[in-house]
Amino acid sequence: MEEIQSQPDLYRSSSSSASSPTSRVPSSHFFYVRKPGSLRQPISFEDSPEWEDTPDVDLRMEDEVGGGDSINDATTTPVSPSLSKMNSGSMASPPVPEGGAGVVRKIAGASIAWKDLTVTMKGKRKYSDKVVKSSNGYAFPGTMTVIMGPAKSGKSTLLRALAGRLPPSAKMYGEVFVNGSKSHMPYGSYGFVERETQLIGSLTVREFLYYSALLQLPGFLFQKRSVVEDAIQAMSLSDYANKLIGGHCYMKGLRSGERRRVSIARELVMRPHILFIDEPLYHLDSVSALLMMVTLKKLASMGCTLVFTIYQSSTEVFGLFDRICLLSNGNTLFFGETLACLQHFSNAGFPCPIMQSPSDHFLRAINTDFDRIIAMCKNWQDDNGDFSAVNMDTAVAIRTLEATYKSSADADSVETMILKLTEREGTQLKSKGKAGAATRVAVLTWRSLLVMSREWKYYWLRLILYMILTLSIGTLYSGLGHSLSSVATRVAAVFVFVSFASLLGIAGIPSLLKEIKIYRSEASNQHSGAFVFLLGQFLGSIPFLFLMSISSSLVFYFMVGLRDDFSLLMYFVLNFFMCLLVNEGLMLSIACIWRDVYWSTLTLISVHVIMMLAAGHFRIRNALPKPVWTYPFAYIAFHTYSIEGLLENEYLGEVFAVGEVRSISGYQAIQGNYQISPDTNSKWRNMLVLLAMAFGYRLLVYVLLRFGLNKNVSDRLLLSHKKNNSSR
């Protein structure tokens, strides 16, 4: 970063250096106005530089990766009539800093080209289903190709189409070539970074990347450590390698810029040939954005092919791009070199004003949202007169730019390059292999144990709540004795303990939702699967759930004064442990359905209240109304089986004296308070039912994660609500 700051002269805007006359005095504001008497250039700028037509130049691409993934040797072609100033210094780029002391290995890039690419998606657009329309372009190894445009212009859709990650509702037409062939990119040959990625805050940067490498790569551990170190060096994260991503106690975590680079480094452990990034500058300030792009420029210089989307950039960042694909409403307004894009706008009648960022200029011309601002300003006045000097319809600018591009030499050069790239097939990309299922389960289990032990909101908070609840119940029901008169109170104590402990488990909903988000982020790039995620999460949670069950059970058992028998105590602990397992599965299934804290919490509270009512304490199960309450609530409420098993464990085999000569069994004593079975093996059947319910809920979670619910229900409700409001 010091090298960047030490050369401020290299960061001057192209429009304010060689491209604009020095004698020109800028006006007080730069708005779109019509030049009087201009017909062929209906829209122009005041105080704008003039561009000169320049002869054709040749662009030669060399294969820098030595032996692998060439660009089909189709490297000499006329490109653009406006690139003679490419090396004139008018758009100087900052020098790329070195990656530190370590030497990062080269990456074998791959060329990608797309021809007549059209993507349709029903309901995505108001007037047309076409999100991307007949787009052409290409990207070379060692270069950065940016897809730029206003919101809802089709940037992310085009990026996903190139990476083969379109949703099932989308249909793609056209052709995508990788190294000259139409074959699908195999696993490990490319990386895709979402706009918003979920990181694990309780891990350090090195730990997070190492676990990601273990999930992605086959091979030995030392090999994975080397690729992790390479990724850290490539993304300039050496100073943060041993720092927790989310911070701890009073220590701050990584800032948004470093977090974004960590998410990119996670994909680099596979050493992909092509890297797709959706909005790498999302939520970054100007300094972080520049550092991010300089780092990506360094990554591209290693041989990787970079294709990413961007909404807006500063002049310094714009100078780092190699090629730009400009979109508006799905239409390609330009594809080519960055400086050629400035020439294209000048030819179309929209030259970039001095002291204005090129990306701001492009978006100002093609963003239809500015029309509403113009309409708001029509009646406003400023010191210089009419503030609403902007009288341009952006639709006119879009049509003009599109028509100018289609008839320009830039469009012809793109078609020529695509033809040369696809005339013969190059090196086929090969899959780099995956880690085995057993390895992934072991890695996820160990990572879950580490994260749960460090993050107090996972289980430590619930353990504290359980101990507070158990101490409260224990002191409330202490000193009951073992007389016949204490049976009803003892039944109430067991009911309160099981029901309220299950209800307090809702405190784990935020942690489960975070785990689901991490799974979705990893599963989208095939780093994980539904089965290995569930098994790893299940195995990782067992020690903490057992710790909560044994600590709470011991306190409750001895404070309330249940029967003094070790085997009965162990059954009590196992029964409550199974109850916690079932409750965990229920919370996980509800969280998978809603994927929202508010709706998940509300649903779980409602479900637990209904289960408590049907558990047989407030009214014996035989007396419950058959429809609804007995079938199905009483049979699906896990409280029922847990409480019944605990009471059978306590009272079967017990004898109570009635007077001096008569006695009754524990089964007879409890019949008026709770319905249990007289069979001594019934408590083990209840345990098996709880175990089956624990696996049943996780099977439901597997189905939800594996086969359905690409969108959570709350998002669907919100979308339908917006549609209803728009129809009104």
TrEMBL record:
Comp. bias (Polar residues): 72-91
Q: What is this protein called?
A: ABC transporter domain-containing protein
List, alphabetically, the Pfam families matched: ABC2_membrane (PF01061), ABC_tran (PF00005)
GO molecular function (one): ABC-type transporter activity
- Listed transmembrane segments: 459-480, 492-513, 534-560, 566-586, 598-620, 687-709
All residue ranges annotated as the ABC transporter domain in the record? 112-354
* Entry keywords, A to Z: ATP-binding, Membrane, Nucleotide-binding, Transmembrane, Transmembrane helix, Transport
Membrane topology annotation: Multi-pass membrane protein
Q: Where is this region: Disordered?
A: 1-97
Key word Aminoacyl-tRNA synthetase present in the record?
no
Gene3D superfamilies xref list:
P-loop containing nucleotide triphosphate hydrolases
| GO cellular component terms attached to this protein's record | membrane
Question: Which residues fall in a coiled-coil region?
Answer: none
Report the sequence similarity comment from the record: Belongs to the ABC transporter superfamily. ABCG family. Eye pigment precursor importer (TC 3.A.1.204) subfamily.
List all Acidic residues biased stretches.
47-56
